[in-house]
Design a protein that fits this description.
It contains 2 helices and no strands. By secondary structure, it is mostly helical. α1 packs antiparallel against α2.
Length: about 60
């Protein structure tokens, strides 16, 4: 049985924003690595982890 979606419209919009930001950060990280800029790639990895954490936090509200 499928669970009803209990996220608000704003929460769903935020997840979409986070997904878009993740795509951008992964692209930036790939470009940084291709340029040999490991420091920037590491900084972007921290940003990626934070965006993923926030997205998971919002998704957890769905199961509450």
């Amino acid at each position: 049985m499928k669970k009803p979606n209990i996220l608000t419209q704003e929460e769903r919009a935020r997840i979409t924003e986070l997904q878009d930001a993740l795509i951008e950060r992964y692209t930036d990280q790939d470009e940084a690595l291709k340029r040999g800029n490991k420091a920037q790639a590491i900084t972007l990895e921290f940003e990626i982890k934070e965006l993923k954490r926030e997205m998971e936090e919002i998704k957890e509200w769905e199961s509450v």
